[in-house]
UniProtKB/TrEMBL annotation, chains A, B:
Gene3D superfamilies found in the cross-reference section: 3.40.50.10210
Protein name: UPF0284 protein ACFQJC_13450
Signal peptide range: none
UniProt family annotation: Belongs to the UPF0284 family.
PANTHER family per the UniProt record, alphabetical: PTHR38811, UPF0284 PROTEIN SLL1500
Key word Glycosyltransferase present: yes
Assigned keywords, A-Z: Glycosyltransferase, Transferase
Protein source organism: Haloferax namakaokahaiae
Alphabetized HAMAP family for the sequence: UPF0284
Length: 333, 333
């Protein structure tokens, strides 16, 4: 069993106010590279920053790493358009960093990476894959892709207050820039990803389509971005069993999540890690919520009977990443 | 503890008669990509071929994989100029495939990748690294680098009959093409690698220099190519403890190996896997001998008390890679 982290970037994340995946917009480009290192090594290596939200909420990659330390799952990172160096080994599928979706053709590599990822998915010598994603700004591109496919599914946010109005505005400008209309790319997933998306979504979708062809069990571990990836899979005509595993934080934030999962014929697993200790308690306050495979990792932790140990293990990971963040436990924030 | 496989290519390997790392010269470019997949997954994934020598001797990557299955070590692949796609995740240090050393500037990226690898070596969050290599044609480039540094150390071969005359001729042409003389790049390891080498040697040397700076124990797992890498390390002025771990097949082939290791202040470990069963018995007949970290993996197997299990485990790996090759066990070759 492997957890595959699909890691990439979109310049869309640089729009102020869209993403909490970095202390400020200048740092979001490092977040996927750092997340990959944290899952691979339990620490940052080449990356100059440890990803936190603007309020200091730690990256969900730390939770995925904690589950890896508890369960020993194999990890694997696919480069879906990383913009900064990472010391995590990555698989190349030809992806480049995505441009701002308000440009005419933000992800020209989408059709090519979809196909390369599909071929990789077919070839994986595994029985079971859990796929996660890390791409700051990804809920905005997910909104764009869902609209392009004609799917009426809402998206969540890594911020406590979802900047829905701003996202609507960005997605509207993206449709204008690429000259297509909502619903126009139904059943053309490569075009939806190319004109409204980011490079991560076609890689996740391609891996999933390929794995289904090879009878590999697939779990998409994530939130509403994974609903967008699953929509791409269904619009590609792939009908096999797919599970979506998310956190209780996303499920609570998006009441329509279960309905959306059902509309895409996905089995839904929601896991509550029960975080109570600072800084992890910020998740219960609506920060971050999901990402870097967290929902999938929590599902595995639950299946292996170690869910109750995740908080302690995650605090241990965080103490290595940034001792100051966890010292706050005793002193209060 | 990690085993790092530094995997790359040099067009030098296309010269007929130089390398046994492929059934014929047209296939040697796939060998490092396939070796990386075999160590990562225990099977080829994207690679269209399973590397064997012209006589059918299996790649040493199968032995390294067998030891991984016995001991559970973490593996990591650095892309030191791969020419073909691999499904193994790789770390990027900016390397490109090396050109034929009979061209004027075959590895212009050598200084840059040495420095990028050094920085990676410093940053690895590990206490101990075993570094292996896979680069067809690598003993010829190793000869070039050793001569450029002024080190009087002979090189081995993946062929039973070392084509020493041909290698001398190629290296002589390489000196002519680059306009430098033997010994001229002593204490300038980046230039020796750039003008006479392949992209793998400066990556191995850079990783080692960086790891030594960070007080990480380093074992170079390989044959005379690793002597060339160690020479680059010493000519870079790095003085720390370095072990070289090779197979008995290389040590038997190069009587001067121990003396050379001593002259470079390397601790030497020689391990005999005792292969007796076809097709692994070809190793005892002088085929392949070493590569893909085999000597380092055998050292680990010995340290962990599983050396006697390696042959059976390797036959099991081979039966997955190519059932026909191992069916020969019962029928004879």
């Amino acid at each position: 069993m492997r957890v595959v982290l699909v890691a990439g970037t979109t310049k869309t994340a640089k729009i102020p106010g869209l993403s909490a995946a970095g202390a400020d917009p200048s740092l979001v480009g490092h977040t996927p590279s750092a997340d990959a290192e944290i899952i691979e090594y339990g620490d940052t290596v080449r990356s100059p920053v440890t990803p936190v939200s603007p309020t200091g909420c730690p990256t969900p990659a730390a939770i995925t790493r904690a589950v890896r330390e508890l369960t020993g799952f194999d990890a694997l990172v696919v480069d879906a358009g990383l913009a900064e160096p990472t010391a995590a080994p990555t698989i190349d599928v030809g992806a480049k960093p995505g441009r701002d979706i308000r440009e005419a053709d933000p992800v020209p590599t989408a059709p090519g990476v979809f196909e390369a990822a599909r071929q990789l998915g077919v070839a994986f010598p595994e029985d079971e894959l859990v796929i996660g994603e890390t791409v700051p700004g990804g809920t905005t591109t997910a909104m764009g892709v869902l609209r392009a496919l004609g799917e009426d599914i809402p998206v969540s946010s890594s911020l406590p207050e979802n900047p829905t109005g701003l996202k609507e505005e960005v997605v509207s400008e993206a449709f204008d820039a690429s000259g297509i209309s909502p619903e126009q790319t139904a059943h053309q997933p490569e075009l939806a990803a190319r004109f409204l998306g980011d490079p991560v979504l076609p890689v996740v979708a391609g891996l999933t389509v390929g794995a289904l062809e090879a009878d590999i069990d697939v779990t998409l571990g994530g939130g509403t971005q994974m609903l967008a990836a699953a929509a791409l899979v269904r619009h590609a005509g792939a009908l096999g069993d797919v599970t979506i595993a998310t956190t209780s934080y996303v499920a609570d934030d998006v009441p329509a999540f279960a309905t959306a999962a059902e509309s895409l014929s996905l089995d839904l697993v929601v896991t509550d890690p029960g975080f109570e200790t600072h800084p992890l308690s910020q998740y219960a306050e609506g920060e971050a919520k999901e990402g870097a495979g967290m929902g999938g990792a929590l599902m595995l932790a639950d299946e292996m009977g170690v869910l109750d140990d995740v908080e302690t293990a995650a605090l241990d990971v965080l103490s290595r990443l940034d001792p100051a963040a966890v010292d706050g436990v005793e002193d209060g924030p």
